[in-house]
Amino acid sequence: MDPSSTSFQDIAPQISFKYYPGSHVLTMDVQDFTSNDLKVQVTCALKLRISGKRRVNCGKCIGFRKEIDIPADVDIFKISAKVEGGILSVRQPTKASTEGSGCVRRGEWLRRNMVNLALGAAAVFVIVYLNLTNNDHMEQQW
Fold it and tell me: Measured at the alpha carbon of residue 59, what is the angle toward residues 57 and 62, in degrees to the nearest 5?
């Protein structure tokens, strides 16, 4: 799927989201594709990657690639997808209430706290830098 190629046409299938108790459902119009033309993946960055590619004629291909953030309350190990009547449905079940038990996966904790970690690291750097520059300044006074 090379968008820079002249024989590739990038398309934008229509996407919709519905939120139900217990799951989130993403639907996408994929009438031009068979289930073999489609890929649904969960990336390391906890995004849902949906792509499709199909030959149409004379070597020309049509396709798409979408990356969508997975909501924090989704159990990524239970995500499922199916194609029916030209519609791709990706069901994203929400986690059972593990939040109250304190059970949080390392990657999820890191994603939730990345800004706090970055701000904390920057604050430590500033404090150390100021202490070092103050010490250098005090040595020069003596």
Answer: 70
